[in-house]
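Posting for a labmate who doesn't have an account.
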Amino acid sequence: MAISATEKPLGKVFTSDYQFTIPSFQRAYTWQAENIEQLVNDLQDACADPNTPYFLGSLILVKDGPTQYQVIDGQQRLISLSIIVSVLRELEDDPDLIDSLNDLILEPGDKLRGIKAEPRLTLRERDTDFFRMYVQEGDLEGLFDLRDNDIASHAQRNIAINTRRVFDALAAMETKDRRRFASYLVNGVTLVIVTTDDLAGAHRIFDVMNMRGVPLTASDVFKAKTIAEISPAARNAYATRWDDIMDPLGDDAHTLEEFFADLHLIVSHKAVCTQLLEEFRKDVLKPYVKQQNVISFIDDLLAPYANAWLILSRPTDANLPDDIVALLVALADYQTTDWKPVAMWALVNSIRNLGSANAQVFSTPGFHAPDNGAADKHDEKLQLHDIDRLHDVLSALERVTGVDSLNRQSPLARRTRAASAIRDLNKGHTLQQIRGFLITDEDRRSALAHLRGELQTSPAMKKLLLIRANEQKAGHRIIRPRSLKALPILPEQVGTKSDFAAWPESVRDHWTNRIGNLALSQANENQVAPLATFAQRRDRMLLSASSKRFPLTAELADIAECTPQTLQYRQDETVRLIADHWNIRYDADNTDLSTLNEETLAVNTSVSSPTSKRVSIAQVLKAGLLIPGETLVWERPRKGERWVATVTAGGKLRMDDGKEYATPTAAARAVGGSSAGLTVWKRTSNGQKLSDIWKAYRLRKH
């Protein structure tokens, strides 16, 4: 078995030298939005120092031919990198750079070398056509226009969601910064390419590289540096003290890095920390070393903040008032964690003895720090002070976290907000004076526009929004059952026997991804999905008594027939409840923003960069890129079909039979069963694809 290993920049990996294939036995693409967002955020930070390479791990490959390789380890990164390159290509307007980016993911071919023109990466059979069409060949407009029921697998859904998130993150960058990012991606991101000609050998390499040896964690490194500065007489005692403090946090390297990165932000007020080991030593440890007081670092900084971190990980076990626990539970709902430094600061500054080894932090046995054999172990109650201030800070923090999540603020923006809030909190400012807690009228309008429109967000965020609305209506925190989900009232697939079949296609399309169409339930989504009628779906959602704890779900029991007006009422009520919960309902002029429609809310919101939000026919009409009355055609010569649609002044496509559809995809699905509506419809006048028109609208200068 021949093995070779070499480190190469991405620009030397995505070349004709490598034709990657994901074997059928490999798992699907599983990266979530937070994974790819973290990668983009890390690369944005890293490219600030273009001379420092960013190591992205190893690829383990089995050689199948002169340039053909099976990917045994590394497919998640290869797919994610391809998504990033595809988005960079979409946002670029320099033809030479577009060609360069295109060559990274599509092999142009070389007849002399016998290389075919094809994608550099081929996914598993089920997902390869989807990935090729939408990502590699660049039909991002078609991808952004897809509904959930147009997507056939979880991997495809992850590809669609992650492409949206990358687009929103990179589109927010200035052109020069994005080009610098692209250059760093190609030249500064490196991978170790490990190749072998034997599949069994490749798996052995994978096992060795991933399961042998345990690397040092950030805690190990900082412990060594700190304990070395303590007098020999006290070293053993404080080495044990360090372990007592840190062991409850576990030994996961990523978790420990997050903890120390948050502690670095709390102390330094710096939002970005690209080299944790060096920057933590310089910004946090060095002042204690200089003052010859590293014991104070352990007792007065590390210990209380480690316990605060533990409280955030298990809020319902903490010995804290119910209203504080409720707020911590609410913060834990978020998939982002940029709120943690502020919450940790608030806990440490509201609990005088949080760093004590004997503080009874948790009410559940087994969740307290070791006490080094103290006789009065665990008998020290938490010394709370200024609980009203703690409550107000956590409430303000949950509010800005919710609004920023809805507005899809970048990780950098969220951590900058956290650093600003802690800086002002340290100064003793009132909540109104704390810039990190400021919600502008534009923030309000943008958040409510997202709530009013199609929810282009994760299932977890949809569930969170419904929890907020239900708890606002109930007036208290509701105990959540396990496997709680946000389920659609309107089925994704509507058959002829469904009572929803009488609804116009355009109406069903309108409600598919809106919050008024969702209800919290403990029901199994696979059991609800095939149910055709409203009564069947309603009764299944209400089968569990736990689901009825949520008032907006319980209301379904009183509805005999679901109509579009039913969903509109639920939409209005849910939006109003969330707006009240986050205190974003009224602007400075006392206008009730919750009553305004999506278009009105968006009018006065200054959008500085394009987003992946679905574009409507009405928006394109208003921009003058389509003209009412003009015709579109879909030619299907193999089937002998030719479909014609007319653009109406109301922003719909009208077919020859008089039926109207709200989206090109809905019209294509109705007549031909295809979901790629923006790709198939073309202008009769000049053959221009709608996807090109949609792209021109999305990338227009704001």
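Reply:
Got it, the structure tokens are right above this. The chain is about 50% helix and 10% strand.
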